Amino acid sequence: MSEKIIIRQAEYTEHHRIISYLQINWRANHVFTQSPEFFVWQHADSENLHLLTYVIAEKITAQGSEIIGILGYMPFRRFDINLESNSLSLAIWHVKKDAGTPGLGLQLLNWLKKNKTPDFIAAIGLSKMVIPIYQAFRYTLGKLHQSALFGPSPTNLEIASGVPDDAFRPLPLNPSIELRALKRSDDENKNLHSCINRLGNTVIPVKSWKYLVERFFEHPLYKYNIYAVLEDNEISAILVLRVVQVTLSTGLHRVLRIIDMLGPSEMLAKAAPALQRLIAKHESEYLDVMQSGINPEILRASGFIDSELIPDLVLPNYFEPFEKKNIELKIAFKYIHQEQHRSIRLMRADSDQDRPSQIPIK
After folding, report:
1. In the predicted model, what is the mean pLDDT of residues 28-57?
2. 3-state SS class at 129
3. Are 43 and 53 in contact, with CB atoms under 8 Å apart?
4. Residue 322 CB partners (closer than 8 Å, separation 6+)
5. Strand pairing of 120-124 and 87-95?
């Protein structure tokens, strides 16, 4: 039997093969090796429950078969199969050094584009190795811009450093703006669903109420808080937040993070005074957001600060384990079908950048 390589979508029953590949070729203590159940939750194919959202390259010889390359992806329809746009983000992309097949990584990506026909592809957290590939295929390159909002008075800062004194100033409350917590039990409120579906349809990637439920409320390891931003008692935006924490020599310290957003970008700036009060409610040092698609000047004007204007400012990104340094997350994205004209906004939750790295989490 002559040697051949097959590229195909992984079957559900092959999750153990992919996890074994990651353990040997990627990282031995990867979260998927610690929790195969979480791997299945994140990469089950909602359109075909017998498959996983992984493309694999399999070498077949007389001695058997071996996975020599993988490309994980996360369709946004994974959490709502009825979403209008077929967008997806890329996850782990790896080919064995001794695969012996030049261009195999590109073959994995081309298989995905041909067989899944996405409208839009995004990747967040690029390595230096893959950036030239995205450039060659005319993806738009950039980064997630990180901004932070601090409370009205200095606290015992241990996570952030280099924070200027004028970051600690009370922002005047806008009586027309308020935050209202949403709950899983809001599932019966059809008017709410329609409003959120409309807000989620304004930018790419498209999202919905069902997406919020399946992606965040039903997350098996993380706890998310979802807030509606009301302007004059009308829901004008949705913010998804999560508390991250680390135990240091001085005790437990927390940061409140905006992970995702639906609705007009300017509503994030308008909500800044209300968010400042939320920082205190969650006993956090500050609130941060990493995004592409919102003009940083809008956030700066509303009280947010960032390291582009304050070079000594340190806003750690990694907490599992904790690393007290700034991390730049490079991104790439591309419309596959040019008839799309909606603006693009990418945030941490739009890839696997907001997933556990350690077990247990809760």
Report:
1. 95
2. coil
3. yes
4. 246, 248, 316
5. parallel
